[in-house]
Amino acid sequence: MSFQHVAIIGLGLLGGSIGLAVEAHLPDVKTTGYDADPAVRERARARNLCGTIADDPVEAVRDADLVILCVPVGAMDAAAKAFAPGLLPEAVISDVGSSKLSVSQSLAKALPDHTIIPAHPVAGTEESGPDAGFSSLFHQRWCIITPPDGAAEGQIANLKSFWQGLGSTVEIMDAKHHDLVLAVTSHIPHLIAYTIVGTASDLEEVTRGEVIKYSAGGFRDFTRIAASDPVMWRDVFLNNRDAVLDMLDRFLGDLALMREAIRAGDGEMMFDQFSKTRAIRRRIVEQGQDDARPDFGRHDHE
Ligand SMILES: NC(=O)c1ccc[n+]([C@@H]2O[C@H](COP(=O)([O-])OP(=O)(O)OC[C@H]3O[C@@H](n4cnc5c(N)ncnc54)[C@H](O)[C@@H]3O)[C@@H](O)[C@H]2O)c1
Ligand SMILES: O=C(O)C(=O)C[C@]1(C(=O)O)C=C[C@@H](O)C=C1
To answer: I need a surface site. Which of 171, 207, 209, 248 has the fewest CB within 10 A?
Structure first.
């Protein structure tokens, strides 16, 4: 049986997009929502992000058979404890957090009597808040589900078909493996962007504004990523510490090799490396996995 009533906790970019996507693609599914910030609830009502927006977390989850936490990963525990008294015993609890092992553990601790099946839609933008969501966010994007050992196959299948209904392609993965993979493909790229934009901005004081003024396309792309939400990303690095440190050591080793090649004038090494990475990008584009999708617009924005 698929889900009939989804409660969305946290009505920013991810929560708002889920509400709009359910309305657009699964119109028979009822949605209720809650956000801890009253101003966000007001905007969520104005944008009709959910069928009903409750002022109380317990009311928001009442009768829901699926509850999805869409709050920063460091807020999962508090958010879960706040709605716990309203849960149906058979409700499935999921989330969209960018790291999975610590979220999985903290939700299991906060809601010991419930089925918890964490998930991560690998889809987002640098925007946040209730005005940022749009219904096509999950189209043609991966959603990684990380069921704990012993999770009921039927519930995993229901969650899988929910995300497929929103347009995603679903992959099942172990939470620890997810955290290692995402550390290198998402978390460290954000760390690099935050750092290099900071370095350039410090330098700007020396060069009197020339760094940002003459920044070309590559650097501008870094500034987009570096504009991402500070609370969300602080929490990702606090909660995926081990995997990020492991991958960061590897990255710093590779960067040191590159520095050595430049110092030694080793053009062959640089050419080989740049050719390898160019082939990787071309494969991604050929497989249609880049973001240049015609429908990646925010059509349902007010
Ligand atoms: N932004 C992205 O690109 C992206 C992509 C995939 C997954 N994620 C994950 O999704 C989650 C939400 O990210 P977002 O981009 O939607 O953030 P957001 O800042 O747009 O929205 C988060 C919302 O959660 C609310 N909130 C915080 N604590 C709460 C609590 N205790 N109870 C109820 N509401 C609470 C905030 O008021 C805010 O409105 C994060 O865990 C993030 O790691 C983000
Ligand atoms: O496209 C962007 O702006 C994103 O940063 C999205 C992105 C990513 O790194 O790919 C960011 C965090 C998520 O958990 C998933 C997606």
So the answer is: 209
